[in-house]
Amino acid sequence: MFTPGDAARTTHWHPPYLLYLGNAIDDLAIKTARGLAHWRPESCVGQYRGPDCVPTLGLRDMDWNQAKAEGADTMVIGTANAGGVMGPQIVADAIAALDAGLNVVAGLHQKLHDNPGIVAAAQRNGRALFDARTPMGGIAVGNGRRRSGRRLLTVGTDCSVGKMYTTLAIERSLRERGCKADFRATGQTGIFIAGAGIPVDAVVADFISGAAETISPARLDGGWDLIEGQGSLFHPSYAGVSLGLLHGAQPDALVLCHEPGRQHMRGLPGYALPELARCLEANLEAARLTNPDVKAIGVALNTSGLPADQAQATCREVADLLGLPCQDPVTMGVEAIVDHLLSCFAN
Prior knowledge:
- Pfam families: DUF1611 (PF07755), DUF1611_N (PF17396).
- This is Putative NAD-dependent epimerase/dehydratase family protein.
- This protein is of the alpha/beta class.
- It folds into two domains: 17-131, 3-Layer(aba) Sandwich (Rossmann fold); 150-344, P-loop containing nucleotide triphosphate hydrolases (Rossmann fold, 3-Layer(aba) Sandwich).
- The chain is built from eleven helices and eleven strands.
- The chain has helices at 31-39, 64-69, 88-99, 116-125, 163-176, 188-194, 208-215, 239-249, 276-287, 308-322, 335-344, and strands spanning 17-22, 44-49, 74-77, 103-106, 129-131, 150-156, 181-184, 224-227, 253-258, 295-301, 326-327.
- Helix 1 packs parallel to helix 6 (188-194), helix 3 (88-99) packs parallel to helix 4 (116-125) and helix 7 (208-215) packs across helix 8.
- The longest helix is centred in the last third of the chain and has 15 residues, at 308-322.
- The two termini are 23 Å apart.
């Protein structure tokens, strides 16, 4: 079995965390920090916000020295931007955190380890650096051979629509019911939450399906591997990683994730989001290459932009449209989706 630490080694950095928001302009820019604050609140002592930072996590504002005094061990760079760039301010703040005695971890495409100033600060202070977007070595090309065990994959109409939240919520629900279930992280935020995983968007394209096979190998205990989806088959920039996960995950079950009200694909104003039925069928068709028996078992909506009554009405409309349970994992839970999952795979 894959165990935490195989793909993301975390032996030299630990909670409690200071969550770094920098000068983020909106909530999407701090999704990594928000994910940790939501799923691991007991590990987060505070947030650092630059002078131009707009969003907040509702945690105590503090700098690295205050965080260290409050018991923080590690600063997590919790921001995300197009291209995963580590700008001059992030570099300066990472060095300041290291000089205050904190480890620093990040999930950007630009690596902490590639910056001489950051490396020097870590060395002189005896602190650790961790780049979540550094995949493990030894990933083989996917082979598509059937393997034992049950697997669920979340898929989406777009990026950042709630695939990670949905997957973690399903894990929690299954475990509360006494079922064996394990979240398998494929992105930087998920890796920080789970303590292990493979950042598939940093894997060479030929090996993406192999990475999914590696993170979710044959399972003989009757439990579920719950694989965090990435991107969307309909996003011109990120469809490749979505397809690789569909093939390598060999999913028995799919949950479609969507945010109502989006006007276009994230970062691409010229591309509208796909119709839900079309998107779901495209994902099922792609998944059938390695698992002809794959089933859609639910729809997860991110209704954070809707009033509560409209959110409930939208879920009912989508459930009627697709004939599947539909819920917002954050405000409504996923119990109806999990009920349907277990009924579909009762034998």
